[in-house]
Amino acid sequence: MCALLEVKNVSRHFSKRIIRFSDKKKESFAAVKEVSFSLDSGETLGLVGESGSGKTTVANLILRLLEPDQGQIFFNGEDITRLHGYKQLYPIRRSIQAVFQNSGTSLDPHMTLGEIITEPLRNYHLPTKRQAEESLELVGLPPEWTKRKPHQLSGGQRQRVSIARAMILKPSLLILDEATSNLDVITASQIIALMQRLHEEINTAILFISHDISAVDKLCTKKAVMQNGGIVETLCKLDLDEAKHPYTKRLIESKMSVSL
Ligand SMILES: Nc1ncnc2c1ncn2[C@@H]1O[C@H](COP(=O)(O)OP(=O)(O)O)[C@@H](O)[C@H]1O
Ligand SMILES: [Mg+2]
């Protein structure tokens, strides 16, 4: 059986403008270089690494928001890098959902929570009856809040709404990109606990991207470490005994010194 997601030797360059002695020159650099990993159905993979290491670019490549310069991405055995445009990507977008760091703050202020959560169902012409209430309950919010607007919610509650919206289509893959990074420590750990519960109940595969390695350790069984656009190491536990790469060791040590 094939993996749910297989990222094969994917690279993506961006151009950077160098201004030197008023001489403007364009150079490119690899934000993601030759990245490969796979994720099985229901599996949880953490992607860790410092800011700028290429994590969000990997997410955007999988979500087909960016084109790779090289490599292929297979979803359920289909090479999705060959799909282009709204029509071809429509079925894939139903199965791969994402929650970003700013998802909670970018909810449409004019829409009610009920409308926000059920919008993906309407996009796929699916019934919406009782769905908003059930989804609110699923993410630990009162079901009677369907008529509320986003400004009436706290940051953590808004992020729960984003998760409810992302989960309403029961995607086989959920990408969480720094989804807890804007939240205070207690709210962030509540969201991690919610994700653990949803993962157990619904068995969605999760790609959890974060610079917070303790959050990744809690939620994910497998961890891939990114540095300068490449994956330097994949391991089961982010601890000093298991880590082989010096960069992974440095990451773990820096986490330890912060939590002391
Ligand atoms: N659209 C873009 N244009 C140019 N450079 C970009 C773009 N997106 C990301 N980058 C650069 O690519 C590198 C990796 O960025 P990113 O994937 O956002 O890293 P991370 O999510 O790990 O912080 C960074 O140097 C960033 O500045
Ligand atoms: Mg990022």
What does this molecule look like?
With 260 residues, the chain is of the alpha/beta class. The chain has a single domain (5-259), classed as Rossmann fold (3-Layer(aba) Sandwich), CATH 3.40.50. Strand 1 and strand 2 (23-39) form a beta hairpin. It has eight helices and ten strands. The chain has helices spanning 55-62, 85-95, 113-123, 131-138, 155-167, 185-202, 213-219, 246-259, and strands at residues 5-20, 23-39, 44-48, 70-75, 78-79, 96-100, 173-177, 205-210, 222-227, 230-235. The strands form two sheets. Strands 6-7-8-3-9-10 form a six-stranded mixed beta sheet, with helices on both faces. The protein has a four-stranded antiparallel beta sheet with strand order 2-1-4-5. The chain is globular. The structure holds adenosine-5'-diphosphate (ADP) and magnesium ion. Adenosine-5'-diphosphate is lined by residues 14, 31, 49, 51-57. Magnesium ion (MG) binds next to helix 1.
